[in-house]
Amino acid sequence: MTKNPAKKEQFVKLVLVAFALSSLLFLFLIFIFILFEGLPLFHKVGLKNIIVGSKWAPTKGFFGIYPMIVSSFLVTFGALVIGAPMGLSCAIYLSEYSGKKMKMFLKPALELLAGIPSVVYGFLGVIYIVPLIRNYIGGSGFSLLATSIILGIMILPTIISISFDSLMSVPKTYREGSFAMGATKWQTIYKVVIPAARSGILASFILGMGRAIGETMAVIMIAGNALRIPTSILDPLRTLTGNIALELAYATGDHRLGLFSTGVVLLVIIMILNYVANFGIKRKM
Amino acid sequence: MVRRFGIIAVAIATLLISCSGKPADRTKKDKHTITIAGSTSVMPFTEKLAEHFMIDNRKFVIDVQGGGSTAGIQACLNNTVSIGMSSRELKEEEKMLNTIIICYDGITIVVNPKNPLKALTLQQASKIFSGEITNWDQLGWINRKIDAVTREEGSGTRGSFEELVMKGNEIDDGIMVQDSNGSVKEVVATDPYAIGYISLGLADQRVRPLTINGVIPSIRSIKAGRYKIVRPFIYVTNGELDADGRKFVNFVLSKDGQNILKKEGLVGFYD
Asked: Is the pLDDT of residue B10 over 70?
């Protein structure tokens, strides 16, 4: 084979294409599989009864997941409230203020944060955050607040790395121009760099949301999993992902199909989020 | 060159380790394998039994897995396991399976040891979980919301609890849900205001069982028929068991096997 470089090139290209397409194939198969399992119930019970139904008792024929849809968005929003300011500040510091040495230290540390398994976050939540909330703020501790805090930390790496990249891609000339006009460093960041990187920063928030809404293990451990829409940040709640993981082990028949329908709704939400994020990034380029 | 050699060495070592650890190699020759799966409530006890069984019967390998009562019954119907474990009675469409009751288990309502409450009536228990009683002051303690914990829909323990305690009332939607006996126990053990229900065999000093209608949940009160929240632990088989499986089941039902279960807090067939 080495005797014919052109053929070898061709061969390598073919192999790479095959692998590249196979990953697409997996995506396609997952999509088809979830739809195939999830859609029959939509047909049987009715889209409306599932999406806006407020009672989930699958063994008794109620498949309403509205409270879980609301709860999923609530924890995602909560995570963003906690994670977005922290993440953005960190990204700004990294790209505008920190020296080379600090960057060398901070970047790998943040990547490590991304690598910690979610069950560990959940465990920390159960051991520290839940009792802290119970003792000092109130409620059982298993709550919207606890979940938001943990998810807020979990989405930090996503927000930081993407915001950082978009801040770094703002041309140096913008900053120099601003300095030349007599602006201070913070004025430059606030008035020039952030607006220029706006779409990338927004995309980082949306991808962070996608991460938060899809998180399962940590959420099951600290959310309390009650089926009602929380009325305060100290109430327990159940997310879409939590519902699937919690009940899968015992589910049969329609109950199982109900969990797949939950999966379909989740898939649609995540697809929309990803689409919006991609759109945001593309428009900038 | 050195680096490439290193990579190859690691690859070979990995291969060797993964080959030598393969369970199939051990089971093929003269080992008898029994696979058991199902209820997470029965699983820890089956594991204990299997451990003891394998000490005396070195040629047996017993593979015990969880998954839940329903999953165990399904696996048994598909013949993917030889024995399924269930912590609930079989449903109509599952009745073609053979059932072997191995012991009885009480479900105990537990609170945190810091909670001064000692007793509940069955009716009060039902009202707590249906959301009618929501504050501890309604039960004569401080003014604090009750953090009730239930199990997830479809769980065998929840099924038995609904049948034996709730009696037709529905468990309230606002109540916390955990997905195993262990998680419920963890919540109750750490939250002074929590209440939950778990398998009697799994209650330890980190949680405190409540008396129900004045009866202490214990092996003795269950045997005497005074404690009412009791469910059977069942092995199910699809048709006749093979010789290996029968040997294990015979051990479970023997005096030795039942003694092991008794030590774990379950109610067997011998005294």
From this structure: no
Q: Note whether B243 and B106 are within 8 A (CB).
A: no
Q: Do A250 and B153 touch (CB under 8 A)?
A: yes
Spatial contact of A10 and A32, defined as CB atoms under 8 Å apart: no
Homologous superfamily, domain A56-282: MetI-like (1.10.3720.10)
Torsions phi, psi for A95 (to 5 deg): -85, -30
Please name the residues in contact with B103: beta carbons below 8 A apart, sequence gap of 6 or more: B45, B232, B233, B258, B261, B266, B267, B268, B269
Q: Report how many Cβ contacts below 8 Å link chain A to chain B.
A: 81
Point out which residues pair with B99 in neighbouring strands.
B236
- Single-letter amino acid code for the residue at B72: G
Alpha carbon B249 to its chain's center: 18
Q: Which of A56, A131, A245 sits opposite B190 (nearest CB)?
A: A131
In this complex, do B170 and A57 lie within 8 Å of one another by their Cβ atoms? yes
Q: Which of A250, A257, A262 to mutate to test the interface with B (most CBs of B within 10 A)?
A: A250
Block residue for tokens 């048709």: B239
Cα separation, A92 vs A194, in Å, equals 9
Phi (first) and psi of residue B259, to 5 degrees: -65, -40
- The 10s digit of each residue's pLDDT in B149-192 is 999 887 888 988 998 999 888 999 999 999 888 899 999 999 99
- In the predicted model, residues of chain A with pLDDT beneath 70 are 1-3, 280-285
Q: Quick check: B71 contacting A, CB < 8 Å? A: yes
A121 in Cβ contact with A154 (< 8 Å) = yes
What is the crossing angle of helices A240-247 and A253-284, to 10°? 150
Residue A263: phi and psi, rounded to 5, are -60, -40
Interface check A126 vs B, CB under 8 A: yes
Determine which helix (DSSP H) or strand (DSSP E) holds B261, and give its type and residue range: helix B255-263
Domain boundaries, chain A: 3-47, 56-282
Stated pTM of the model: 0.80
Is the Cβ of B179 closer than 8 Å to some Cβ of chain A? Answer: yes
> CB contact, 8 Å: B191 with chain A?
yes
Q: Which residue has the tokens 């790998």?
A: A108
User: Which residue of A lies nearest to B173 if distances are taken between CA atoms?
Assistant: A227
What's the rounded Cα separation, in Å, for the pair B156 and B135?
28
